[in-house]
Amino acid sequence: MDKKQALITGALTGLIAMGLSTGALADDKAAKEKCYGVAKAGKNDCASANGSHSCAGQTKADNDPNDWKYVAKGTCDKLGGSTKAGEKK
């Protein structure tokens, strides 16, 4: 196998692997839901619903009802959280 053929083979292998992993990520996200009020300080997954910060890991207080984490679908209520921002339990 010459260098050009090896490069093409490597690129195609990479594209196929990337496609397979993207599908797995989509399936994983579909099996989860945003759960507000269960994130510990510094452990939220993304921006606050009330705009107090815009990134993951920036919540200042435990169980803030405007900060969320992804949890397995159907488990948020059991964890004491809500699927709607701002609701206290």
Structure in words:
This protein is an alpha+beta fold. It folds into two domains: 1-30; 32-89, no CATH class. Helix content is 31%, strand content 11%. The protein contains one helix and two strands; from the N terminus they run H-E-E. The chain has one helix at residues 3-30; strands spanning 32-36, 68-72. It has a two-stranded antiparallel ribbon. It is elongated, with a radius of gyration of 19 Å. The model has no long low-confidence stretch (mean pLDDT 83).
Write the layout of secondary structure elements.
Layout: H1 3-30, E1 32-36, E2 68-72
Describe the structure concisely for a colleague:
The chain is an alpha+beta fold. The protein has one helix spanning 3-30, and strands at residues 32-36, 68-72.
Q: Please state roughly what percent of the residues sit in beta strands, choosing from under 5%, 5-15%, 15-25%, 25-35%, 35-45% or over 45%.
A: 5-15%
**3D shape:** elongated
Helix content: 25-40%
**Integer-rounded radius of gyration:** 19 Å
Q: How many strands appear in the DSSP assignment?
A: 2
* Residue windows where pLDDT falls under 50 for at least 5 positions: none
The average pLDDT value, as a whole number, equals 83
Q: What order do the helices and strands follow?
A: HEE
**Helix count?**
1
Strand order of the largest sheet: 1-2
The separation of the N and C termini measures 64 Å
Features:
89 residues, alpha+beta, 2 domains, two-stranded antiparallel sheet, 1 helix, 2 strands, elongated
